[in-house]
Design goal:
- This protein has helices spanning 2-37, 42-45, 51-62, 67-73, 75-102, 114-126, 129-140, 144-167, 173-180, 185-219, 227-237, 242-271.
- The chain is built from twelve helices and no strands.
- Helix 7 (129-140) crosses helix 8 (144-167) and helix 10 (185-219) packs antiparallel against helix 12 (242-271).
- The longest helix is centred in the N-terminal third of the chain and has 36 residues, at 2-37.
- By secondary structure, the chain is mainly α.
Amino acid sequence: MQDSYMAMVRRKRMYGGLILVVFIALMASGFLVADDRNAGGFWNGITNIFQFPSEVVNEAAANAAALPGLMLNAVPSLIETLNIALAATLVGALVGGVFALLATRGLARWPGMIGLIRRVMDTLRAFPEIVVALILIFILGGGPVPAMIAIALHTAGALGKLFSEVAENADLKPVEGLQSVGATWIQRMILGVLPQVAPNWLSYALLRFEINIRASAILGFVGEGGIGHDLKLAMQWGHGRYDQVVAIFIVLFLTIVVVDQTSSHFRDKLVKGH
């Protein structure tokens, strides 16, 4: 018995070692192929990894007195970025909530449509915001509206999945009680399900708001407005505008920290009750 057990252990270790060797070989070959396709080469460029950051920091340090004013100038663009993220989160959460209720077994209004609705949510999550935004630019032109729509679509797919998982754990007794007295499907969802799932749904929505702030800033690099667009222009100018780059980074970093701490506080209150 012990001999067969030790033989099984040795066999598993051998298979594990072979898998590790194959994995390392694939990673190494993939890196070599990618490095050949890279314009400058990884090993040739890694020595300059600190060159650009040092130039930015040195120029910002030389113009340290101007940083507060530059940070203040970045506030309007920051507000636009926050508006994009907030509107996208609100629209995405509302759509995701409807998707979740329609895609949850035991709650769905049309059980035969559950598979279709889940595939729709999968599709919305599959396409990155930047891809959707680039498509919308050709349709709507540049600006904050394409960014908001792109982020909202991705948010609807992501939150719809998370909301559905929460709704699956809801107690069905209140729903059945409401159904027995003739309540409509909408009334059963509002009165029987939403009070149970609201804390977790709001927690996920707050977490998604943090993610959407970063996404809206990134989309500024493709001409979607907000603080990301100002950062792109400042970096394109290069020397002479690096102090503005640092100011924008500081403003964006402080905003994300404040939003992260605030939302974490409210998430703890909603989910844990403290």
